[in-house]
Design goal:
By secondary structure, this protein is α+β, with helices and mostly antiparallel strands. It folds into 6 domains: 9-70, Arc Repressor Mutant, subunit A (Orthogonal Bundle); 76-137, OB fold (Dihydrolipoamide Acetyltransferase, E2P); 142-207, OB fold (Dihydrolipoamide Acetyltransferase, E2P), CATH 2.40.50; 230-407 and 419-434, no CATH class; 456-607, no CATH class; 623-728, OB fold (Dihydrolipoamide Acetyltransferase, E2P).
Length: 729
């Protein structure tokens, strides 16, 4: 028997392209190409399908009478690939354009990779689509997933649903992983986009139910470094708390001034302290004292290079991934009570109504009197507690209220976006979710930090510019006004909530400020404020100052957290440089560092959100069958998303769970409308839902809509479950 020849697709692709290149401007039917290339009759059907694929990929052009010719050179763009869970994606180009990329045209790219895309005519003459022709930069080295053992080889199923390929792992490269364990896999080979990528396991995290494995999976999936390189650790160990006498002598000594820190109860990296004293004139002198990290972290050192690469500390639900080694962040630089610490201080003279009259920026040494938590300060402000510094704290509160009122008059937006507090047990499992309360003590510190940041930015952007006549290099925190398109979408959403707001000819922060006030105490407050944030541009770091739209500040920077944010460390270095009189207009690499810091900030925020989402799903899994009151937060053709304000949790009521009626999606009204019943489910409606599913792997929470006749049972269910949980504790 004659062995049938194997169909060599790659070989035929090469032969077709070479043949057509040798016959430029000519077109050939599939049968003619097959004859020219000697394609066996048994391969002809697959050969025709291959030609069709090549045309769809833009390699060939299919003309009149089904004649194939070489496609003309196509334009190319570069950008970041954003993938949807359905498989398709978009490349966000450097010029702001979005180019659609189908799953078959993604080549060997992963989500968030920087790619080069070749454009070709879209289907039905629509706008161009793209085909990935080169991966310029991988967004991540590692992929986290579940190891599985097949009959002949192992493979890793990625946790990220946007990664469409399983990764093959040879037994010699599985690091002893057992089927079902979470692992970190590194891609070692992926040249052929039609074959699965090949990788090697670089870390076994453990089984999903083991303590800490879930959050560790999040950390590794974002390529967050959980350990410092040995060189960085060694460099940190060589640092000492002892401050040279010569350094103490040259600094402004504020150790006799009453200063203290106010931070979260679990914090250890105290990078800001405050002081307040009344001057003879009756004005206030407010001191904002920030840890002088730049004294210890020298530019270009191993610690500095690592801090720049990390960009920021990351606060996951069960751990902190610090920007600096703990010896610096939690010890030497941390403004611990009753210890001498080096600072950069902004000393501001303020009138009783919060007007800034004068300021000084000094290199100082302080000695914090006490470490307060926000809750302890709030108890003092509420009259529930007292100590020797209660009077100063009440004066600070008085000043902060004046600053808030002043900022409000300027039109600054005071977002009160909901945050969730996750309480974990000893085993790392979620015990409780609580909506974080924004205390007056929080606002007190926020206002003082805002003022210090603005003062420092104005010092460089106005004072030093007037002094030198030139724009000096600096790191600004900028926030641009929202786009016209985003504003139109937001206003349409507001109308669906029944909030009428005339579109302003010139969008100002005050417009948003008034909207926040209108909905603050309503059920839809969380949803409206979330939509408002989405309508805004993302704040970023930039060497070019364009102001801060949300705060309505012409000049703003980040100065107050150099232990956990690299841009703040840069600001300290620049301030010292200008204090020395080195007023050069050059600072190599500053623009690129700003861009890197902005990217790292986004990665940190996404990782933090993902770790919280993980625990929200875990929490709701403990409440299957329970009922909760919520608000319809989003309406889509396949169902409604319901927001539960108490736990800041969203879940889906799929359209199949809405009974036997057929529901139409009304995009204009953001509503689902029952065809037979006429029932309308619209954005902002209050509903009761029952938890039916919570899947940690897919990060999905599913609800069932509870009809009004069933609703009376909801309150009894919740009360019974709460009693049960208290007894278990």
């Amino acid at each position: 028997m004659t062995r049938r020849a194997k169909f060599e697709g790659d070989l035929y692709v090469t032969q077709v392209l070479n043949f057509l290149r040798a016959h430029p401007g000519q077109g050939f039917k599939a049968k003619d190409l097959a004859r020219q290339l000697g394609v066996p009759q048994s391969h002809y059907a697959r050969f025709r399908a291959l030609l069709k694929e090549m045309a769809e990929r833009g390699e060939l052009r299919k003309g009149r009478h089904a004649r194939y010719s070489l496609a003309p050179p196509e334009p190319e763009v570069t950008g970041v690939l954003h993938v949807k869970t359905q498989g398709y994606g978009f490349v966000l180009c450097e010029d702001g354009r979005e180019v659609f990329v189908s799953q078959r045209n993604m080549g060997t790219a992963f989500p968030k990779d920087v790619v080069r895309v070749r454009l070709f005519a879209g289907r039905n003459g629509e706008k161009p689509e793209g085909r990935v022709v080169e991966v310029i930069e991988r967004a991540r080295e590692n992929i986290v997933g579940t190891y599985r053992r097949g009959k002949r080889f192992g493979f890793v199923v990625p946790d990220d649903l946007k990664v469409q390929w399983d990764i093959l792992v040879d037994d010699a490269d599985n690091l002893g992983a057992v089927s079902g364990q979470k692992v970190v896999v590194r891609i070692t080979d992926w040249e052929d986009e039609r074959a699965n990528p090949i990788g090697k396991v670089v870390k076994v995290l453990g089984f999903p139910e083991e303590p800490g494995v879930d959050v560790a999976s999040v950390a590794y999936s974002f390529d967050l470094p959980l350990a410092f390189p040995e060189k960085v650790t060694r460099e940190a160990e060589e640092l000492t708390e002892t401050i040279p006498e010569s350094e103490l002598e040259r600094r402004l000594d504020l150790r006799d001034v009453v200063t203290f820190t106010i931070d979260p109860a679990e914090a250890k990296d105290f990078d800001d302290a405050v002081s307040l004293r009344e001057l003879e004139s009756g004005n206030w002198e407010l001191g904002v004292h920030i840890a002088d990290v730049s004294f210890y972290v020298k530019e270009g050192s191993a610690i500095d290079r690592e801090a720049r690469a990390r960009g920021t500390s990351v606060y996951l639900v069960d751990r902190v991934i610090p920007m600096l080694p703990e010896k610096l962040s939690n010890q030497i630089c941390s403004l611990q009570p009753l210890k001498d610490r080096l600072c950069m201080s902004v000393l501001m003279e303020l009138s009783r109504d919060g007007e800034l009259l004068s300021y000084r920026i000094e290199e100082t040494v302080i000695r914090s009197r006490r470490r307060y938590t926000y809750e302890e300060v709030q108890d003092i402000l509420d009259g529930k507690a007292a100590d020797e510094y209660s009077g100063i704290l009440r004066q600070m509160h008085e000043l902060s209220r004046a600053l808030i009122a002043k900022r409000y008059r300027r039109g600054s937006i005071d977002f009160d976006t909901p945050e969730v507090e996750v309480e974990l047990g000893p085993d790392g499992r979620v015990v409780e979710l609580r909506r974080k309360e924004r205390l007056e003590s929080h606002r007190l510190i926020e206002e003082f930090m805002l003022l210090a940041n603005e003062t420092v930015a104005k010092h460089v952007g106005i004072h030093l510019r007037e002094k030198t006549g030139e724009e000096l290099p600096f790191v600004y925190r900028v926030h641009e006004r929202p786009s016209t398109e985003k504003m139109a979408e937001f206003l349409q959403l507001l109308r669906a909530f029944g909030v009428e707001a005339a579109p302003p000819s010139n969008v100002t922060p005050r417009f948003f400020q008034r909207l926040v006030e209108r909905v603050r105490d309503q059920d839809v407050a969380d949803i409206v404020q979330d939509a408002m944030v989405r309508a805004m541009m993302k704040a970023r770091y930039d060497v070019n100052n364009v102001g801060h739209f949300g705060l309505n500040y012409a000049f703003y920077t980040h100065f107050t957290s150099p232990i956990r944010r690299y841009p703040d460390l840069l600001v300290h270095r620049l301030l010292k440089r200008y204090r020395r009189g080195a007023l050069s207009t050059r600072y190599n690499g500053l623009d690129e560092t700003c861009k890197l810091a902005s990217r790292r900030e986004i990665i940190a925020m996404e990782a933090e959100r993902e770790s919280v989402k993980l625990k929200q799903v875990e929490f709701m899994a403990q409440h299957i069958g329970e009922r909760f009151r919520g608000v319809i937060a989003r309406v889509v053709p396949f169902g409604i998303f319901v927001h539960i304000p108490d736990y800041v949790v969203d879940g889906l009521v799929h359209i199949s769970e809405l009974g036997d009626d057929y529901f139409h999606y009304d995009a204009e009204r953001f509503a689902l409308v029952g065809e037979r019943s006429g029932r309308v489910l619209r954005l902002g409606d209050r509903v009761t839902v029952e938890v039916t599913r919570a899947d940690k792997n897919e990060r999905i929470i599913d609800f069932r809509l509870v009809e009004e006749s069933e609703d009376g049972k909801a309150a009894r269910d919740r009360a019974r479950k709460r009693r049960s949980r208290r007894q278990k504790r």
